[in-house]
Amino acid sequence: MSIALAMLLAVALDALVGEPKRFHPLVGYGRYASMIERRVHRDTRAAGIVAWSLAVVAPLIVFTVVRALVPSWLAFVLDVLVHYTAIGRRSLGEHARPIADALERGDLAAARTSVGWMVSRDTEALDASQVAGAATESVLENGNDAVFGALFWFVLLGGPGALLFRLANTLDAMWGYRTPRFLRFGETAARIDDALGFFPARLTALTYAGVGRFDGAMRCWREQGLRWKSPNAGPVMAAGAGALNVTLGGPAPYHGQWQHRPGLGEGDAPDASSIRAALRLVDRGVIAWVAAVLVIAVAAHA
């Protein structure tokens, strides 16, 4: 029951307050991880393992020990606060809605600027539909990375689980690129993030199907999910696109070159309404998860 209550409070806190505007813990963590990377970096997998251990295992041990030593009520508070900082449902909307707003008023330049905060592709080369597609893809993918993944690991392992997932996911975003600097060094961060995200991603895809167009989501997941280069983003975005009846994927510009990407979903071309629909899909999924956990907790204590 404490896990269910802590989840409810963390989700409510995120909805009411959003991300901390000042002194965000993940900003401080990013500086800590960057310091480790500068000092430990070598173009080897061994260096990557050492760096990942210092950046994730060390903070996780400290948190777990502190949590075990404090009174139970304070451990509960720590779990709520850690879970609150690990999820980003409200932040997702705060980043995505300005893109939809700009597209609706015909301000493509502003839409390109705003979507640049969410994606790594060359936004200046995107037309209005491609901007909407990029934002919709980001909302769907980050529904897993920033919301449902943290919920899954919190249910499984409490505060330490949510912390593990969020730190590992942050390191993948920092180090998990196939660039000359991170090709071997970042391999550990990328593979561990894939492993931690495997089950949450498939539950996220199933969630999108359950709260959206079920048949379309399951069909797109089955037929398209494995075509994507990421083993977790593929099922999530394919199911999400199918649930929304929107066509995503396709060629996208990165570092001055258009790269081929498989198509995802079916139906209409993306526009501002697709972005808003994706946000509503994530919101319905969060409600479904919290409700399910509360029902299970009540039934277990009946």
From TrEMBL:
Membrane topology field: Multi-pass membrane protein
The family this protein is said to belong to: Belongs to the CobD/CbiB family.
Location(s) in or outside the cell: Cell membrane
Entry's Gene Ontology cellular component terms: plasma membrane
Pathway membership: Cofactor biosynthesis; adenosylcobalamin biosynthesis
HAMAP family associated with the record: CobD_CbiB (MF_00024)
A GO molecular function held by the record: ABC-type vitamin B12 transporter activity
TM ranges: 46-66, 146-168, 281-300
Gene Ontology biological process terms in this record: cobalamin biosynthetic process
InterPro entries: Cobalamin_biosynth_CobD/CbiB (IPR004485)
Species name: Luteibacter yeojuensis
Name of the featured protein: Cobalamin biosynthesis protein CobD
NCBIfam families: cobal_cbiB
Highest taxon above the source species: Bacteria
Keyword annotations: Cell membrane, Cobalamin biosynthesis, Membrane, Transmembrane, Transmembrane helix
Function: Converts cobyric acid to cobinamide by the addition of aminopropanol on the F carboxylic group.
